[in-house]
Amino acid sequence: MTDDLNDLKAMMDDAMPRPDAARRAENLALAQKNFADLQGSRDGLRPTAVTGPKGLWTGVKTMLNATMSKMGTTKGGLTTTTALVACGFLFLTPQGQDLLRPPSAPQITMTEFDVPARAPQLETAMADEIGSEFATQGATTRTETAQTPLVPPTSDDQFADRSVPAVSERAPTLRPVQPLEMESDAIAQMAPQAELMEESAPEMAAPSVSKATEGASNLTAQRRIVVAPSPTLTDDGVIAPIGNTENFANAAVNPLKITVEEPVSTFSIDVDTAAYAVVRSSLSRGQLPLAQAVRIEELINYFPYDYAAPDAGEAPFRPTVSTFQTPWNADTQLVHIALQGQMPEVAARPPLNLVFLIDTSGSMDDPAKLPLLKQSFRLMLDQLRPQDQVAIVEYAGSAGQVLAPTSASERTTILQAIGSLGAGGSTNGQGGLEQAYSVAETMRESGEVNRVILATDGDFNVGLSDPSSLKDFITNKRESGTYLSVLGFGRGNLDDATMQALAQNGNGTAAYIDTLSEAQKVLVDQLSGALFPIAGDVKVQVEFNPAQVAEYRLIGYETRSLNREDFNNDAVDAGELGAGHAVTAIYEVTPVGSPAQLSDPLRYAPNSVVQTSDELGFLKLRYKNPGEDVSQLIETPIVGSSIPGTEANFAAAIAGFGQLLRDDRFLNGWGYDEAIALANANRGEDDFGYRTEAVQLMRLAQSLSR
Amino acid sequence: MTIGPRQTTVMRMMTSDEDLATAAAAGDGAAFASLLDRHYDRLFAFCFRLTGARSEAEDLTQDICAALPAKLSSYQGRAKVTTWLYRVAVNAAHDRRRKRATYAKATTGWGDWEVNRTAAIDDTTEKLDWLTAAMNQLSDDLRDTLALVLDDMTHAQAADILGVSEGTVSWRISEAKKALRTIKEQEDMV
Asked: In what order do the strands lie in the sheet with A257-258?
């Protein structure tokens, strides 16, 4: 050990977390159970035949074993035959199920260091499985689960009890009440995989719960029925399992910055709307969205705003800056920065070459995925003109061209091709992507807009082993003029982080389509914006005046922050602004001398701020005209307070709503009532009803958060 | 319901690790429980050193706990229990990485990549993040070796656990130090 390493060791020791007590008990119990199981199998003591009937009985035992191990501190297995029979009875009859419902959970007391009696043997070659490899199926499954943020469990007890057949033979573990709050996905995943379950049931059941028990000190606590929620858009009422692989891109909430220390804030615009649709989909399913899934800027930018549009001959977009009192804090101000892109006439837009790259992997076989996708594309087709061209490439195991480039006027051919798409097979995202780009290449003509539109539920599970090389691939194609947009469908598997990464690198938008009306919005009402960029690499930089602004923070845009020097570096990529798009960014600023100031002035640093200007700050925007490499600069000062208009007020209400969902520490108790009132009063024209819907979502979130 | 007679732990405290392990290998569940209870925290700490992230460490520890009973048969009573446990842990970490590499959806990587990208420009990066990031930039061999040495193993002990020569361990440690210094310098330049 040398000095170099001593530092590292000290650092490591500082960072060393205490093992989680619940996890510890859990893991010890798991080890003990496996130990007992292993002993049993060696002794050859098996209450059931090795290849005995698969199904209910095994399932009940499995579940009971899992139950016991999940009880937490138990070190012993479960033995008592009487208990087995009794519990079996409970689960087999509807009355029995009711008996086990909360709050009458049976309290099973286990003592530490109880001698593990021979646990009832699970059939099949458990011992072999444990012996040969560390990660059994179950453990591996859970490993994956742990990597990605999870959908919060649903708690729809009513639903679970009433609409699902009492005991299904294939999935006995799904029905009974689970002894602990479990991730819905873990359970749902187990159900359909009966074979897997029979092979590795104990590991699978036990580890899958362990995350959930973290921090749950009362290990025999609440019971909750967990069942996959039904997707919002089922026309046939199919219950779709909610997968466990959702993955959301977000960064820590932007911290408060002290102007004297860091006067400059830089970020890229974000015109994605995926986060709003994800929030809506969660709320309409009766769950609060994960805080991580909430990207506030995408919530705000979901709505069309009536900002002043640029005049002909001006820059492609016009910035409007206003400052007004913060709704949730009378002592701070909101700086509201709005960019409104121009809307070129539809007739004047260049011909479009669209390649639809459609994920037809098995996971797309869900009413909210492939069928919705087909309907969405039918809607979109009506928006295209005869000079536009469409091609379709599908990817599922092997990539294939379903439709050669075809003029949009040949509706029948295109509709037939769309109708022929069927889900099946595994996914090979990259192979499909390469083919889609090569098809796009053949369609390219100068002056036309080339775009690949990737529609997926987030599955890229084969052949994409190196994210950075794929990023390079998409970046290269972007530079050669073919852009990429991503449409996300369905929940459960949604890889929001990947969608974001792909779309950002491909100069496209990432949108999440959960309902046909969202498809209408993205692919019909706002199609031009999604497909026709009017300004590229749009960056925003604000320099605050320390004489006027003591502190500031940017609401949202966490995933879009840029380094200060990136602003003037044209090589650094940033967001695109589409035709007619509006982008809103909101800062909360604390004026100098305001009682709302959170940081104290420094005692020893010289107070060198001289009042030089009345301006709050200075806004700089950089953008590139489509196809150009050199950026243009727009500058405008940020001046004092005004009365907010309807549009700014609505944006502020949504910013507040987003913070309520994500992190409300800056809101000072301002809650849903105030957000709803503010949004409701500022719905404006609302031609499409988006704002009305937002108010409804706020009400829903309010009820759910109580 | 209470199952079986209660075993006192006091007695067990006097027994050596090796005796416990031998008893456990012969099927004594209580011995196994005591042994694991005794070493759990240390095992977890080592897993943390191997992985550099709390959640990873918890999961790895779980893998080990799940498989330890089966591995017990491989305990021959020749090595110290701690040495044997470290060996099991290192192997488990290997298995885990290999599983991840083959099993992991590339999208997970994408997600991480995106998260890392945003984290890289996040100026509130904490010390722990640096550590994790630095550890992750080392190759698996270097990281395993470093974790052992940081856990106060001598180079000879580490060599024994990893099944390599002592010279290899010393070489790996110097490589790891070099790599960490480079990472540190790059950070300082930024």
From this structure: A257-258, A549-555, A582-591, A329-341, A317-326
**Which residues touch A666 (CB under 8 Å, ≥6 apart)?**
A256, A328, A329, A553, A588, A659
Please check whether residue A193 lies inside any domain of the structure.
yes
Q: What is the CATH number of the domain that holds A396?
A: 3.40.50.410
Q: Which of residues 121-180 of A touch B (CB under 8 A)?
A: 127, 130-131, 133-136, 139-140, 142-144, 146-148
Interhelix angle A81-92/A56-70, nearest 10 degrees: 110
Residues A182, A207 contacting (CB under 8 angstroms): no
CB contact under 8 A, A2 and B127: no
> Are A358 and A502 within one domain?
yes
- Looking at chain B, which residue has its C-alpha nearest residue A113? B7
Full domain range(s) for residue B36: 10-104
Assigned domain for A1 exists: no
Q: What is the CATH number of the domain that holds B44?
A: 1.10.1740.10
Residues A187 and A63 in one domain: yes
Q: Do B149 and A1 touch (CB under 8 A)?
A: yes
Residue-wise pLDDT for A356-398, tens only, equals: 888 887 777 777 888 888 888 888 888 888 888 999 888 765 5
Number of domains in chain A: 3
Q: Which residues on B lie below 8 Å from A559 (Cβ)?
A: 114, 118
**Per-residue pLDDT tens listing for chain B (190 residues):** 444 444 444 445 567 888 888 888 888 888 888 888 888 888 888 888 887 777 778 888 888 888 888 888 777 777 788 888 888 888 888 888 776 665 444 444 445 555 555 555 453 344 556 666 677 777 888 888 888 888 888 888 888 888 888 888 888 888 888 887 887 777 666 5
From residue A77, how far is each of A197, A204, A531, A634 by CA, in Å? Answer: 19, 16, 61, 71
Q: For B98, name the nearest residue in chain A, comparing CA atoms only.
A: A135
**Contact state of A12 with B105 under an 8 Å Cβ cutoff:** no
Q: Which residues of B touch A214 (CB under 8 A)?
A: 58
Closest-approach residue (CA) in chain B for A40: B27
Q: What is the tally of structural domains in chain B?
A: 2
Structure tokens at A659: 């913070």
- Which contiguous run of DSSP H or E holds residue A331? strand A329-341
Q: How far is CA A596 from CA A590, A610, A664, B123, in A?
A: 7, 21, 16, 24
Backbone angles phi, psi at B168, to 5 degrees: -60, -40
* A582 and A507 housed in the same domain: no
Q: What are phi and psi of A301, to 5 degrees?
A: -80, 0
Q: Is A243 within the bounds of a domain? A: no
Q: Which residue of B has its CA nearest to A566?
A: B121
Check whether residue A309 and residue A418 sit in a common domain: no
- C-alpha A161: how far from its chain's center? 29
Residue B65 counted as domain residue: yes
- How far is A637 from A615, CA to CA, in rounded Å? 7
Q: What is the ipTM of this complex?
A: 0.72
Look up the domain containing A617 and give its range.
Answer: 257-344+534-597+611-705
Helix count and strand count (H, E) for chain B = 10, 0
Judge if the upstream peptide bond of residue A103 is cis by omega within 30 degrees of 0.
Answer: yes
Residue carrying structure tokens 């007020």: A649
Q: For chain B, give the number of residues.
A: 190
A38 and A142, same domain (yes or no)? yes
Q: Do A14 and B36 touch (CB under 8 A)?
A: no
Rounded to a whole number of angstroms, the distance from the CA of A351 to the nearest CA of chain B is 33
Q: Across the interface, which of B29, B113, B177 has its CB nearest the CB of A116?
A: B29
Identify whether residues A376 and A261 lie together within a single domain.
no
Do A49 and A88 sit in the same domain of this protein?
A: yes
